[in-house]
C-alpha cells in the first residue's frame, strides 16, 4: 500500500462526505481501506451511496444547468398490477448537465436500490451512480448528468427486483429512446419472457 493511495482515499472520503453531506467516513473505516475499501462508497447501517458527485462537471458541460432534487419512493404499495414492487414513478426527466439529488425512501421491509447505469466512466466507476437503502430507511446522493440527449436505465439490482417492477429510466434532454418493460411506460418486448433475465 503506497502513501499515494492512502492520500487519495482520505481525499475521496472527505470529498464524498462534502458532496453529499452525509455520513463522514470514520477513522476506523479509513484504517480498513486496504481491505477492499471502495474510495467512492459511503455506507452505514441505513444503506449506501456509491459514486456521488456534486462537484465535478462532465467534460462536455461548461456549467451545472440546473439543480434538481427528487424523492424516489420504493415499495410494494407502488407495484403495478402483476408485479411485486414499484417506484412511485418510473421515469425522471432532467435537463442536460443537471445536478440531480435523489433521496431514495424505502417503504418496504426489504432492501432496495436505485442504480443508474451508463454514466461516463471517467467520473463514475463502472458508469454507475447507486443508492441502496435498508427497509424503512432513506438515503440521499447527488450526481451530475452529461450534456447529450440520452436515456439511462435506473433499477434495483437485487435478485428479481427489476423483473418484479423496479425498472425505470432517467431521460436526459429528449433522451435517445424508451427502454422496454418500464412499468406504466413501455411494454415488454415479449410478454411473459421470464427466461431472458436481464
Ligand atoms: Cu429492490
Task: Note down, in words, how this protein is organized.
This protein is mostly beta strands and 198 residues long. The chain has a single domain, classed as Sandwich (Immunoglobulin-like). Helices cover 12% and strands 31% of the residues. It is built from 2 helices and 11 strands. The strands form 2 sheets. It has a 7-stranded mixed sheet with strand order 1-2-8-7-10-11-5, covered by helices on one side. A 4-stranded mixed sheet has the order 4-3-6-9, with no helix packed on it. A hairpin with a 2-residue loop joins strand 1 and strand 2 (47-50). The structure holds copper (II) ion. Copper (II) ion is lined by residues 112-113, 156, 158, 161, 166.
Amino acid at each position: 500500500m503506497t502513501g499515494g493511495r492512502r492520500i487519495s482515499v482520505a481525499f475521496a472520503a472527505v470529498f464524498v462526505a462534502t458532496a453529499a453531506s452525509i455520513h463522514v467516513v470514520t477513522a476506523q473505516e479509513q484504517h480498513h481501506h486496504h481491505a477492499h475499501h471502495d474510495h467512492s462508497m459511503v455506507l452505514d447501517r441505513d444503506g449506501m451511496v456509491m459514486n456521488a458527485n456534486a462537484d465535478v462537471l462532465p467534460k462536455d458541460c461548461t456549467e451545472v444547468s440546473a439543480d434538481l432534487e427528487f424523492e424516489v419512493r420504493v415499495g410494494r404499495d407502488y407495484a403495478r398490477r402483476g408485479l411485486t414492487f414499484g417506484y412511485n414513478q418510473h421515469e425522471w426527466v432532467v435537463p442536460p448537465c443537471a445536478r440531480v439529488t435523489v433521496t431514495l425512501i424505502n417503504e418496504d421491509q426489504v432492501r432496495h436500490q436505485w442504480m443508474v447505469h451508463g454514466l461516463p466512466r471517467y467520473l463514475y466507476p463502472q458508469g454507475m451512480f447507486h443508492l441502496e437503502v435498508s427497509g424503512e430507511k432513506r438515503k440521499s446522493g447527488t450526481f451530475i448528468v452529461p450534456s447529450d440527449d440520452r436515456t439511462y436505465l435506473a433499477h434495483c439490482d437485487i435478485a428479481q427486483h427489476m423483473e418484479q417492477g423496479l425498472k425505470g429510466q432517467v431521460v436526459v434532454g429528449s433522451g435517445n429512446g424508451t427502454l422496454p418493460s418500464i412499468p406504466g411506460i413501455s411494454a415488454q418486448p415479449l410478454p411473459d419472457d421470464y427466461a431472458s433475465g436481464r
